[in-house]
């Protein structure tokens, strides 16, 4: 928010009365300004540079007033006074007029085509017969500076030059030249410089150096000459000394050069409307002609008055008041928006003056009416909006877990989401390239290089900063880390983690392990392989060798715990042993009956919008597939539906915790709405049907649930147990669960196997096809896995249906490039002739 | 409990004298260690006003072990001197003696002996004087005899420096009869035991009084972070008011959702490198709802929906730039867009409390990341008065009832209001939040129906927390430099009180 400093006594003189500080503060508040500080030049200097420098400085009282960032018309004393006087009904808003010159032709500014590459636009105007005083002059300079800092975006969009017109003679030329060819005496310097020299000179200028970058690396620099070759200015850096304004200047030539024409016009309007007050004909501005490279001539300043019509009902309805049309017109007039009731219904015609470039919509006018009415006079009402509150599930879980972790004796820490690369890599004995970290391009310090990928460094730093506290220290944090994720629109996502550390004279692995057990108890996960949780020894460079375990929940890895590596401890400036636990908590989200919000937005707009012109571009959503066969069995049979019903008894979706393509695929496989006997299917069916409209935007399925339509011959094939997974009630579910688990393990392994390693390795996915549907696939797998070579590591596998009941074995492996080749592998596998028909490389990735 | 024998003897001794007994004297006359007497005094004091004991301390000088050795056998230098025969002694021989090394240098500096380095068979040491006066020993003997009262301070300090003397402070008690003096004492029980309850003996026993002045034992427990406690309260308030929580777990956001969708122009200062964290990896966002993007582009560059627009060249490249979100309003924008895609508009009330990021200069009250609290209501026909009404209700729950509104500017709300509340302590109005009605240029391109207004407000979580818990430096509250003692000691959070 820009701050304008004005001399109090001068302000009161212009306002025609004095105020106490409190009264003036109150007036500002009402008008949307803020009296930020009451001070004096002396006070400012003594505060910034010490008392000694301040002696002799003026002790005239200054008001520092905060002005809203879009009100350029209030950036100087003249504008402030005008605004407040009109607001207080003491003055009618002046009417700004553009006039022709009293004699002769208008001043001309000719833009050459060379400017196109650096700063293509320019506008100009003339203030005739001005009377400057020291105060007016100061304000005139100050306004340029304020405009430069705000709307002009530090001169990058617009730069203003003001010149004593009587020292120069038009027509003026705005062109661009190589810096070596521009030579002039710049403002307040004693000799001439070339532009190249100037750039070097201003490198150390505390003020001007901030603008050099705008043109520095351009081949041509913008420059304005008069008809005698006198340099007016080299925008956006400096004016020439020749045409500088003095207290005796009568006629002022104002030029604005710009990269944004709209803003240039606004800035020029602002300059001339504010200071035409001091012309012999107040509020008139002499026009200037600007000739564009294409030969077109435009007259400036525009000083355009725009008319808008709105109804008083609109204002009343939006603000929540009940005021007559005439009264609203009066209110608006007090905001420098001259308005009157047109007499047609409750219509009001509003005239927006050139000073109010901030008014771009009827809602801006409505706000001004509300301000003039007085925000604090508006009755406060309660909307009748009826809604039911929902918590965001992951936050709800976080809240509940936090309470209980504190009850378990751990103290909550709260660390920054940003940190240095070192924190998440070197200090943890990891490589930054392995972290999936999102990197910040413009950090001011090393503390903000990356978004954290783990909560552990924060907790260790918290301990380091609290070493004086009695041991043991038990800390935890439940918060988000950020990981790169290509499936997201922004390429990254948050992941909610819990992390805990125990710091004492002994490592206390049992304490951290106990906390894991307690957490699992709180999350209702039993200690068991398979459906429960278990931990399994693993190696991780952050942890002490042999003292790290991976946490598996329902077969899926969710995190790690262990005793930290001594190097990690010392790198965080700690001295005691420390054990730690970190895991994802998103896998523990239950299902909610209510659909919870996500920040993924639909990419496709469908149906209702009037914006959409193309007719029905998206295909009809429910094109029924030819197959009713799914992994749950045939959806056209009661057995299949029953299997699905059992599956859905405790699940909301076929896969994961949100509706996905897996759901819609199965939905489409069901020929008609299921009978109420299958209550779970029916519930799910209705729920998924409600997504029909946005089905295209649902996340894709992780695995294939609907099987390709089989030829009639094999439909009745009873031996095809794959299609009848749920034939028997009891085993069925666990088999399905086992299958999903296997698959998740496979995904995990695949993910894990993609991690880079020191030796050149590749991850290979092989498709092994059997001879026919009667081949024992478990035997196939056994054979494949029996192939062993140095540098070959078999990964997870799964059976993928290829049609006609035939399934192929998809098996992953990691090979060291130097030792194992694909041809070698293929040869070895095809050697099992009786089972294997062919081997193909489905995917080959260097890791 | 000290030895009862000593206690009783001590009591009888006190009974006999009129004024009192010194514990040191008592110890030496009873032939027990002084600590035994001190123990007896402590246990008598615990019984109440049986005796009065006044703590006295006295200082005296004592010889250290080395000092005692010297007092007995003479100083090292004197011993060196006396061990040198007239014909001299080889230096290596001398150094073999226990006192050789120290004594040699001292004796040299006192010029009692000399070394003949050129002597055949190695350096040899000879006496230079006939006899010496062992002053050190004499001084030490003086101290041993009468505690060194005759010795000068300078000498004492010199000897102290040589670790031959040490100053000892002796604490003793001056014991005299107390108000309830008695030579017979009944032992008082400290605690009720299960046995006493079982056999009823508690009825006969006397119990030691508790010291209610002392603090209890601190419970062994974990603690929640104060900022998170305040967050819990704000969540609670929103839930009480029927607001649904928005999914704000996406710190990385595209400029499109963070700025463009909010009708914040691409040259806006907030989009400057100095104010916002941009990402180098992943640098750009993809996948924008294409139709919506076109409408956003149009309203910025040309206007529409009754607006003049900003009239500039809107660039997709600028919108694609990934940043760390500067406000949670980016999520509100996504939610409102999503709401607009519903078949039929339904009113919503949303809230969120989560982290936002600013590439700002840090000081005692500003960090590069902080928590933003945000509330949003979308419905047909909401007015500015409704916004004020909701804010009044919300702040009343925070214990703030005196509210007033100042017109303000914000690129995506119109009208915009800053909220001020009267601070009784500071005796002035202080800013407590920001609010406004979302601009039509933001809502209409999303596809929300014309008559729907969306009102919103926001504040930071840190500021009310710092006020609530009296914290002046934000770094002591948030981040790893947190003062854990402050976390341990912080009370529960009741915002309204």
Automatic annotation (TrEMBL), chain A:
Residues 617-630 have a biased composition (Low complexity). SUPFAM superfamilies: Class II aaRS and biotin synthetases, eEF-1beta-like, GST C-terminal domain-like, PheT/TilS domain, Putative DNA-binding domain. It comes from the Eukaryota. Residues 612-632 are annotated as: Disordered. GO terms for cellular component: phenylalanine-tRNA ligase complex. Its EC number is 6.1.1.20. Coiled coil: none annotated. It is an enzyme of class 6 (ligase). Keywords: Aminoacyl-tRNA synthetase, ATP-binding, Cytoplasm, Elongation factor, Ligase, Magnesium, Metal-binding, Nucleotide-binding, Protein biosynthesis. InterPro entries: aa-tRNA-synth_II/BPL/LPL (IPR045864), B3/B4_tRNA-bd (IPR005146), DNA-bd_dom_put_sf (IPR009061), eEF-1beta-like_sf (IPR036219), EF-1_beta_acid_region_euk (IPR018940), EF1B_bsu/dsu_GNE (IPR014038), Glutathione-S-Trfase_C_sf (IPR036282), Phe-tRNA-ligase_IIc_bsu (IPR045060). One of its GO terms (biological process) is phenylalanyl-tRNA aminoacylation. PANTHER family: PHENYLALANINE--TRNA LIGASE BETA SUBUNIT, PHENYLALANYL-TRNA SYNTHETASE BETA CHAIN AND LEUCINE-RICH REPEAT-CONTAINING PROTEIN 47. Catalytic subunit of the guanine nucleotide exchange factor (GEF) (eEF1B subcomplex) of the eukaryotic elongation factor 1 complex (eEF1). Stimulates the exchange of GDP for GTP on elongation factor 1A (eEF1A), probably by displacing GDP from the nucleotide binding pocket in eEF1A. NCBIfam families: pheT_arch. EF-1 is composed of 4 subunits: alpha, beta (alpha subunit of the eEF1B subcomplex), delta (beta subunit of the eEF1B subcomplex), and gamma (gamma subunit of the eEF1B subcomplex). Interacts with elongation factor EEF1A1. This is Elongation factor 1-beta. The lineage of its organism: Eukaryota, Metazoa, Chordata, Craniata, Vertebrata.
TrEMBL record, chain B:
Pfam families: PheRS_DBD1 (PF18552), PheRS_DBD2 (PF18554), PheRS_DBD3 (PF18553), tRNA-synt_2d (PF01409). It is an enzyme of class 6 (ligase). One of its GO terms (biological process) is phenylalanyl-tRNA aminoacylation. Residues 229-491 form the Aminoacyl-transfer RNA synthetases class-II family profile domain. It comes from the Eukaryota. Keywords: Acetylation, Aminoacyl-tRNA synthetase, ATP-binding, Cytoplasm, Ligase, Magnesium, Metal-binding, Nucleotide-binding, Phosphoprotein, Protein biosynthesis. It is found in: Cytoplasm. GO terms for molecular function: ATP binding; metal ion binding; phenylalanine-tRNA ligase activity; tRNA binding. Its EC number is 6.1.1.20. InterPro entries: aa-tRNA-synth_II (IPR006195), aa-tRNA-synth_II/BPL/LPL (IPR045864), Phe-tRNA-synth_IIc_asu (IPR004529), Phenylalanyl-tRNA_Synthase (IPR002319), PheRS_DBD1 (IPR040724), PheRS_DBD2 (IPR040586), PheRS_DBD3 (IPR040725). The keyword Repeat does not apply. GO terms for cellular component: cytosol; phenylalanine-tRNA ligase complex. Its main location: cytoplasm. Belongs to the class-II aminoacyl-tRNA synthetase family. Phe-tRNA synthetase alpha subunit type 2 subfamily. Heterotetramer; dimer of two heterodimers formed by FARSA and FARSB. This is Phenylalanine--tRNA ligase alpha subunit. It comes from Labrus bergylta.
């Amino acid at each position: 928010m820009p701050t304008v400093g004005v001399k109090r006594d001068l302000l009161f003189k212009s306002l025609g009365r004095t105020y106490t500080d409190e009264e003036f503060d109150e007036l500002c508040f009402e008008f949307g300004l803020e009296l930020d500080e009451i001070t004096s030049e002396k006070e400012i200097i003594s505060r910034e540079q010490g008392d000694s420098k301040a002696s002799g400085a003026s002790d005239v009282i200054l008001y520092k007033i905060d002005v809203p960032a879009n009100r350029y018309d209030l950036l100087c004393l003249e504008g402030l006074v005008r605004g407040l006087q009109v607001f207080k009904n003491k003055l009618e808003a002046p009417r700004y007029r553009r006039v022709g010159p009293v004699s002769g032709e208008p001043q001309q500014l000719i833009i050459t085509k060379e400017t196109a590459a650096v700063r293509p636009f320019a506008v100009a105007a003339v203030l005739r017969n001005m009377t400057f005083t020291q105060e007016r002059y100061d304000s005139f300079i100050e306004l340029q500076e304020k405009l430069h800092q705000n709307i002009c975006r530090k001169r990058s969009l617009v730069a203003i030059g003001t010149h004593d017109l009587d020292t120069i003679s038009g027509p003026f030329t705005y062109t661009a030249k190589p810096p070596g060819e521009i030579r002039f005496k710049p403002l307040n310097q004693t000799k001439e410089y070339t532009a190249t020299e100037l750039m070097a000179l201003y490198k150390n200028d505390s003020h001007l150096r901030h603008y050099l970058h705008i043109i520095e690396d351009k081949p041509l620099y913008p420059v304005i000459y008069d008809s005698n070759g006198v340099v007016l200015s080299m925008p956006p850096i400096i004016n020439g000394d020749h045409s500088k304004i003095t207290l005796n200047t009568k006629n002022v030539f104002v030029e604005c050069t710009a990269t944004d024409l709209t803003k240039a016009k606004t800035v020029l309007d602002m300059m001339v409307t504010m200071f035409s007050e001091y012309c012999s004909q107040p509020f008139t501005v002499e026009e200037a002609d600007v000739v564009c490279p294409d030969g077109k001539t435009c007259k400036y300043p525009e000083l355009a008055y725009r008319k808008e019509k709105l109804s008083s009902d609109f204002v009343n309805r939006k603000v929540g008041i009940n005021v007559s049309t005439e009264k609203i017109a009066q209110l608006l007039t007090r905001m420098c928006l001259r308005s009157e009731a047109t007499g047609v219904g409750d219509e009001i015609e509003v005239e927006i003056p050139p000073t109010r470039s901030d008014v771009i919509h009827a809602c801006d006018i409505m706000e001004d009416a509300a301000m003039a009415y007085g925000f604090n006079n508006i009755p406060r009402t309660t909307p009748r909006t009826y809604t039911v509150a929902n918590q965001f599930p992951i936050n709800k879980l976080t809240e509940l877990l936090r309470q209980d972790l504190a009850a378990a004796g751990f103290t909550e820490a709260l660390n920054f989401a940003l940190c240095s690369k070192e924190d998440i890599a070197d200090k943890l004995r990891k490589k930054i390239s392995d972290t999936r970290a999102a990197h910040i391009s413009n950090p001011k310090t090393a503390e903000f290089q990356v978004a954290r990928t783990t909560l552990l460094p924060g907790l260790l730093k918290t301990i380091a900063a609290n070493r004086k506290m009695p041991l043991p220290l038990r800390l935890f944090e439940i918060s988000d880390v950020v990981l790169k994720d290509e499936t997201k629109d922004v390429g990254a996502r948050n992941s909610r983690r819990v992390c805990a550390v125990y710091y004492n004279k002994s490592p206390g692995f049992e304490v951290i392990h106990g906390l894991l057990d307690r957490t699992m108890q709180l999350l209702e996960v039993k200690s068991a392989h398979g459906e429960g949780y278990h931990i399994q020894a693993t190696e991780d460079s952050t942890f002490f060798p042999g003292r790290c375990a991976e946490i598996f929940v329902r077969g899926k890895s969710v995190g790690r715990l262990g005793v930290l590596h001594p190097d990690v401890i010392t790198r965080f400036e700690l001295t005691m042993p420390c054990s730690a636990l970190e895991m994802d908590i998103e896998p523990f989200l239950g299902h909610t009956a209510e659909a919870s919000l996500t920040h993924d937005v639909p990419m496709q707009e469908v149906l209702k919008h009037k914006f959409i012109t193309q007719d029905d571009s998206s295909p009809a959503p429910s094109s029924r597939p030819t197959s009713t066969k799914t992994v749950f069995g045939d959806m056209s049979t009661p057995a299949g539906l029953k299997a699905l019903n059992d599956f859905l008894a405790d699940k909301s979706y076929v896969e994961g915790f949100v509706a996905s393509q897996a759901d819609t695929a199965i939905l489409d496989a069901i020929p008609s709405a299921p009978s109420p006997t299958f209550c779970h299917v029916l519930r799910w069916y209705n729920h998924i049907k409600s997504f029909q409209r946005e089905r295209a935007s649902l996340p894709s399925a992780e695995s294939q649930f609907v099987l390709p339509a089989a030829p009639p011959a094999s439909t009745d094939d009873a031996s095809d147990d794959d299609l009848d997974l749920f034939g028997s009630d009891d085993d069925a579910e666990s088999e399905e669960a086992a299958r999903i688990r296997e698959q998740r393990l496979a995904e995990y392994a695949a993910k894990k196997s993609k991690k880079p390693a020191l030796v050149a390795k590749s991850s290979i996915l092989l498709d092994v096809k059997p001879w026919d549907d009667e081949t024992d696939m478990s035997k196939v797998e056994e054979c494949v896995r029996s192939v062993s070579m140095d540098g070959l590591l078999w990964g997870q596998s799964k059976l993928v249906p290829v049609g006609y009941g035939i399934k192929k074995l998809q098996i992953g492996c990691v090979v060291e490039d130097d030792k194992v080749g694909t041809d070698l592998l293929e040869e070895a596998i095809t050697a099992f002739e009786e089972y294997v028909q062919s081997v193909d490389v489905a995917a080959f990735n260097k890791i | 409990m000290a030895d009862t024998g000593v206690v009783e003897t001590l009591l009888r001794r006190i009974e006999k004298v009129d004024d009192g007994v010194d514990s040191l004297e008592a110890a030496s006359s009873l032939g027990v260690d002084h600590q035994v007497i001190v123990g007896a005094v402590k246990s008598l004091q615990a019984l109440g006003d049986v005796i009065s004991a006044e703590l006295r301390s006295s200082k005296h000088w004592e010889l250290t072990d080395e000092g005692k050795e010297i007092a007995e056998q003479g100083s090292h230098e004197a011993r060196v001197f006396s061990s040198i025969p007239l014909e001299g002694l080889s230096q290596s021989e001398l150094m073999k003696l226990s006192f050789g090394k120290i004594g040699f240098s001292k004796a040299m500096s006192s010029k009692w002996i000399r070394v003949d380095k050129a002597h055949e068979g190695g350096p040899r040491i000879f006496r230079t004087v006939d006899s010496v006066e062992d002053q050190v020993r004499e001084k030490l003997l003086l101290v041993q005899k009468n505690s060194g009262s005759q010795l000068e301070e300078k000498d004492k300090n010199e000897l102290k420096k040589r670790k031959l003397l040490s100053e000892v402070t002796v604490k003793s008690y001056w014991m005299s009869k107390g108000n309830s003096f008695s030579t017979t004492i009944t032992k008082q029980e400290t605690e009720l035991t299960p046995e006493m309850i079982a056999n009823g003996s508690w009825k006969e026993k006397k119990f030691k009084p508790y010291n209610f002045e002392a603090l209890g034992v601190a419970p062994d427990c974990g603690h929640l972070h104060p900022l998170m406690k305040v967050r819990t309260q704000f969540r609670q308030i929103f839930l009480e008011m029927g607001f649904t929580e928005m999914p704000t777990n996406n710190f990385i956001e595209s400029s499109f959702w963070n700025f463009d969708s909010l009708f914040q122009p691409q040259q806006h200062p907030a989009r400057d490198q100095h104010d916002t964290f941009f990402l180098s990896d992943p640098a750009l966002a993809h996948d924008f709802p294409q139709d919506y993007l076109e409408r956003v582009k149009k309203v910025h560059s040309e206007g529409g929906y009754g607006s003049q627009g900003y009239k500039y060249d809107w660039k997709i490249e600028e919108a694609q730039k990934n940043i760390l979100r500067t406000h949670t309003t980016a999520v509100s924008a996504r939610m409102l867009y999503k709401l607009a895609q519903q078949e039929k508009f339904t009113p919503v009330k949303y809230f969120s409390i989560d982290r936002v990021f600013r590439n700002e200069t840090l000081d005692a009250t500003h960090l590069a990341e902080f928590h933003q609290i945000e509330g949003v209501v979308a419905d047909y026909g909401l007015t500015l008065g409704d916004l004020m009404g909701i804010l009044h209700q919300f702040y009343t729950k925070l214990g703030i009832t005196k509210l007033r509104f100042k017109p303000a500017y914000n690129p995506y709300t119109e009208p915009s209001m800053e909220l001020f509340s009267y601070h009784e302590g500071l005796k002035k109005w202080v800013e407590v939040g920001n609010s406004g009605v979302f601009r039509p240029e933001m809502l209409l391109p999303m596809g929300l129906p014309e008559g729907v207004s969306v009102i919103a407000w926001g504040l930071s979580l840190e500021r009310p927390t710092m006020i609530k818990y009296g914290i002046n430096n934000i770094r002591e509250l948030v981040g790893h430099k947190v003062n854990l003692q402050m976390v341990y000691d912080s009370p529960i959070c009741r915002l309204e009180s």
